[in-house]
Amino acid sequence: MQVPEAPTPVAARCPGCGTEVAPSFLSCPACQRLVHAEPLKRLAADAEAARQGGDLRAALGAWREALELLPAESRQFGAVSARISALAQELDRHPAAEKAKGRAWAKGAAGVGALGLLLWKLKAVLLFALTKGKLLLLGLTKTSTLLSMLLSLGVYWAAWGWTFAAGLVASIYVHEMGHVAMLRHYGIRATAPMFIPGLGAMIRLKQSLPDARQDARVGLAGPMWGFGAAAVCALVSVVTGWASFAALARVGAWINLFNLLPVWQLDGGRGFHALSRSQRWGIATVMGAMWAVTHEGLFALLVIASVGRAIGRSTESSDRLVFFQFVFLIVALSLLLLTPVRLVGAP
Question: Once rounded to an integer, what is the mean pLDDT over residues 151-167?
Fold first, then answer.
């Protein structure tokens, strides 16, 4: 669902006390009356209706839009922020319930034999194609994304040939759409990916992430999807023997590992926001182990940065899902770095 932009404040007089209110103000400086009281009532009603209808994402979108119309120091801002956090946690639990229903359906289908199992597998493939596949195609409908993608394709083509360039651009796109998918999961608006030749791509959030847990999960969603793209390339290279796909698997793994650096606004830095000190030390240990396995120099930087974050100021956050996703990504991407590449006679 597309959430409309928040209305632009218009200079007016406060209906409560008559004080002139500047366009940028969200409340009257004299009596503290909310400037956007009526839109806030409408958004609250929309959110409640969506919640009652079971559409948690729509409810989150409405509450997030309402949050933009509230002063950060107001009591209402705190109340709406709490509603958003509660809805986001409920939304995270919702897929688990769907999967549980799916498993029950699969068990029932298995009871009628192999045909039921086959139908279940086909159902899973179709669901992916209709959800994630549709989202991937949606990003390509944006003119800015297509133009910047073609520009990057031309730059990479000149350096490495069209096959590798096309695969690299597609891998970067999948990574960025992983972020977009998780943002949509939480009802947060964001732009389509914008490619920057030589630097990858980026998306801009139109709304802020309210807590470290959601920020971390959005951050790691990119490398998770990026791992999927690299794994597909590795599989194709094994089946066909094409060296270009093996190279794409290794480069994709390296790029996503680099994004796991726990610094600044990189995906790893956002992931560390939701980890306790002991979990950060655990990540650093796994990185050290994978350094010994792969002998990849990038891990020196990853280990140093992770140890620095573990030693630094601790956090009360402790998200087990983020921790296990982080560990999985380190190990899985490290193994992809070992994909053999034929240097002679490759397509």
Answer: 90
Which residues sit opposite 195 in a β-bridge? 201
pLDDT, tens only, 11-26: 566 766 767 666 667 7
Q: pTM, whole model, 2 decimals?
A: 0.71
Q: Which domains does the chain have, with CATH numbers?
A: 12-99 (1.20.58), 118-336 (no CATH)
CA 5 to chain centre: 21
Render 110-147 in DSSP notation, one character per residue: HTT-HHHHHHHHHHHHHHHHHHHHHHHHHHTT-HHHHH
Question: Among 2, 38, 32, which Cα is nearest to 14's?
Answer: 32
Mean pLDDT on 115-125: 43
For 193-254, give the secondary structure using H, E and C: CEEECCCEEECCECCCCCCHHHHHHHHHHHHHHHHHHHHHHHHHHHHHCCHHHHHHHHHHHH
For 253-275, write each residue's pLDDT tens digit. 999 999 999 988 899 999 998 99
142: left (phi over 0), alpha (psi -120 to 50) or beta: beta
- Half-sphere exposure of residue 325: CA atoms within 13 angstroms, side-chain side: 24
Contact (Cβ atoms closer than 8 angstroms) between residue 65 and residue 80: no
Buried residues in 139-159 as b, exposed as e (16+ CB within 10 A): beeeeebeebbeebbeebbee
176-189 pLDDT, tens digit per residue, is 999 988 888 888 87
Instruction: Read off the tokens for 342.
Output: 């034929």
Ordered alpha helix ranges (H), the chain: 37-52, 56-67, 75-110, 114-139, 143-160, 162-185, 212-240, 243-258, 267-272, 277-294, 298-311, 320-336
Are the C-beta atoms of residues 160 and 243 closer than 8 Å to each other?
no
Structural contact between residues 43 and 65, judged by C-beta atoms closer than 8 angstroms:
yes
Query: Phi/psi of residue 144, each to 5°?
Result: -60, -40
Q: Nearest Cα to 327, choosing from 302, 309, 297?
A: 302
